[in-house]
Design goal:
By secondary structure, the protein is of the alpha+beta class. Helix content is 32%, strand content 29%.
């Protein structure tokens, strides 16, 4: 159990966590509009297009290198005029890396739990409340609906999400499946499945539902829908960064905690 009180599972004796680190962090691959770099400290950083996600995805440091490595990332992104996020995991080294990031001027945001599930063990039965329907997002109109749902649930961010999705659909459509749930013509929930190349892990993102439709099984239905898509594409596991709200739901569906992750943010 970690210091946030989360029971982090020792899945497969750590083999699944090692695979997650190797395939999604240390071995992360560049996508549309994204540059991946490995610096002299072994830090792996990802720089998105303007407005896209930018930050550190992997570092294996020690007490003698951590401060210099952090300072190098601050200098690098300051030189680009960009803010960045250091995505810190509960098993990253050194053990006091979070404290060192704070001392360097980064700010911690809410912690989430990385949860995983074998696709073969998940239900793929999609059951939605009466009056709702799924629409696959594959064009600009669908992206606008998805972004509108995202804004209502999570707050402002439509332009960034819209640009990222349009770029991905245009340049690498095989790496994304996205869906919006409609009540009539109103988007009430949206979610996507990231299908990165060269890994067994497909990622669940989004899934937030507008307040009046919460608690009626929409999130569960979208997990099942995306599990079926992942299975059809040959992915063996799903992963998700779960909030405190979604973690109990995911546990009931068969997901287990793998680690916790905390975003440390520098600049805008």
């Amino acid at each position: 159990m970690d210091d946030a009180g989360v029971d982090v599972a020792a899945v497969d004796g750590g083999a699944l966590l090692a695979a997650y680190d190797e395939e999604l962090r240390r071995g992360v691959r560049a996508g549309p509009g994204v540059r991946v770099e490995r610096d002299a400290y072994g830090v792996v950083r990802q720089t998105g297009a303007e407005g896209g996600w930018t930050g550190v995805v992997w570092a294996d440091l020690d007490a003698g290198t951590a401060d210099a490595a952090i300072a190098a990332q601050v200098r690098h992104y300051a030189g680009l005029g960009r803010g960045f996020e250091w995505k810190l995991y509960s098993h990253d080294r050194p053990a006091d890396l979070g404290r060192r990031l704070l001392a360097a001027g980064l700010t911690a945001e809410p912690r989430e739990t990385v949860m995983v599930a074998a696709v073969a063990g998940l239900s793929t039965a999609v059951v939605l409340p009466e009056g709702l329907r799924l629409r696959r997002v594959a064009d600009a109109e669908g992206v606008e609906l998805m972004a509108a749902a995202h804004d209502e649930v999570f707050g402002a961010g439509r332009l960034r999400l819209r640009d990222e999705l349009l770029r991905q659909l245009a340049e690498a459509p095989e790496t994304l499946e996205a869906v919006v749930v409609l009540a009539g013509e109103r988007p009430v929930c949206a979610a996507r499945l990231e299908l990165p190349r060269g890994t067994r892990f497909a990622g669940l993102w989004g899934g937030g539902t507008v307040p009046e439709w919460r608690g009626r099984g929409i999130y569960r239905a979208l997990v099942a829908h995306r599990a079926g898509l992942a299975a059809a594409r040959g992915y063996t596991h799903l992963h998700v960064d779960a909030s405190d709200d979604s973690r109990p739901v995911l546990r009931r569906l068969g997901f287990v905690p793998l680690a916790t992750t905390t975003p440390y943010v520098y600049g805008s």
